[in-house]
Amino acid sequence: ANKKLLVLAGDGIGPEVMGEVKRVAAWMGSQRAVGFDIDEALVGGCSIDANGVPVTDATMDKAMTVDAVLLGAVGGPKWDGVDFSIRPEAGLLRLRKDMELFANLRPALVYPALADASSLKREIVEGLDILIVRELTGGVYFGEPRGITDLGNGERRGINTQVYTTSEIRRVAAVAFELARKRGNRLCSVEKMNVMESGRLWREEVTRLHQEQYSDVQLSHMLADNCAMQLVRNPKQFDVIVTDNLFGDMLSDEAAMLTGSLGMLPSASLGAPDAAGRRKALYEPVHGSAPDIAGQGKANPIATLLSFAMMLRYSFDLGTEADLIEGAVSDVLDRGIRTADIAGTGAAQLVSTGDMGTAILE
Ligand code: NAI
Ligand code: MG
């Protein structure tokens, strides 16, 4: 049966980069017998303009029932003034919250042709292929109590609370173990159990889950500050890293800079499995709507195409088809075909969004 996709192209360059994904999806249907039924809806600023809200209930209903959601990007200066609850980002937040997307997957992969775009030396990053799994719905960004209280005498106190429960830790760790099995079979769990109670619980629960269900995966533990150092000292030592919301925020941005190109970075967010074992999932590039280049055919579609490849691999177990896309991207880069954002080194030919899509398809 065809896979049901909801495409939310969004604002700015979102529709431009998503156009190339639709071409590749159509190619898959005609050449690889992997068909997609694509439904499209508005999210972000374009939805505010059309419907007064950044995402409608009808669109949410669709997002909750399809096999996977693909998102472009939301936002732009046009909507910067409006109240936060109806700002473009609120659409994304509602999707993440209602779909309960608790596991955020951020790969950092360095293509040989772009190794010099990294902020590190070529030999440290060439061939890098790691995946950071960040817990996305718990921890210090949401824990109670929180707030700013007045203590009198001009003194104020700001509070946030890091809270994790057994089930929150186990469900994100389970995602990470499963992903490790599909990759290099190694998982590094990152916390600060030396100074944090939540970190101690994190290590105990990950260890217990490993013994119960995933003893075939090679598990190691690392303190978060050491992990931050190791990522720049020797990032290739890692395969999959799993960590909490706060550390994951920092470490995934750090890892992103090992690759050096925002237009190349895909991501996925996964939720709980349904009765059939299928997880709710949303795939999107890490970059935003790039209003500075929107409408000019300059946007790099690779981050969104690689997000589509992640969808094939992680939602549908279509690893061969995902390999095809990632291999085509690598080939095209080897031939020096570049959009402007990655033109830095080894560029033989500067191309538009559409021509990059065509080169990858070919
Ligand atoms: P941005 O990621 O949109 O752009 C940063 C810089 O990178 C810009 O110079 C842009 O031209 C360039 N860039 C980004 N993606 C590119 C691509 N695919 N190809 C070529 N160049 C690319 O971040 P910025 O400028 O901070 O935010 C712009 C808007 O996007 C804001 O409204 C922001 O709120 C929104 N945003 C949305 C996100 C999302 O939808 N998940 C994430 C980040 C920002
Ligand atoms: Mg961040």
From TrEMBL:
- Where does the entry annotate site (Important for catalysis)? 141, 192
* Residues that bind Mg(2+): 225, 249, 253
Q: Which Enzyme Commission number(s) are listed?
A: 1.1.1.85
Q: Which UniProt keywords apply?
A: Amino-acid biosynthesis, Branched-chain amino acid biosynthesis, Cytoplasm, Leucine biosynthesis, Magnesium, Manganese, Metal-binding, NAD, Oxidoreductase
**In what pathway does it function?**
Amino-acid biosynthesis; L-leucine biosynthesis; L-leucine from 3-methyl-2-oxobutanoate: step 3/4
Task: Enumerate the GO terms in the molecular function aspect.
Answer: 3-isopropylmalate dehydrogenase activity
Give start and end of each Isopropylmalate dehydrogenase-like domain.
4-360
Which residues bind NAD(+) per the record? 76-89, 288-300
Binding residues for substrate:
96, 106, 134, 225
Cite the PROSITE patterns for this sequence. Answer: IDH_IMDH (PS00470)
Family designation: Belongs to the isocitrate and isopropylmalate dehydrogenases family. LeuB type 1 subfamily.
Subunit field text: Homodimer.
Function, as annotated, reads:
Catalyzes the oxidation of 3-carboxy-2-hydroxy-4-methylpentanoate (3-isopropylmalate) to 3-carboxy-4-methyl-2-oxopentanoate. The product decarboxylates to 4-methyl-2 oxopentanoate.
Q: Supply the name of the protein.
A: 3-isopropylmalate dehydrogenase
For this protein's source organism, the top of the classification is: Bacteria, Pseudomonadati, Pseudomonadota, Alphaproteobacteria, Rhodospirillales
Gene name in the database record: leuB
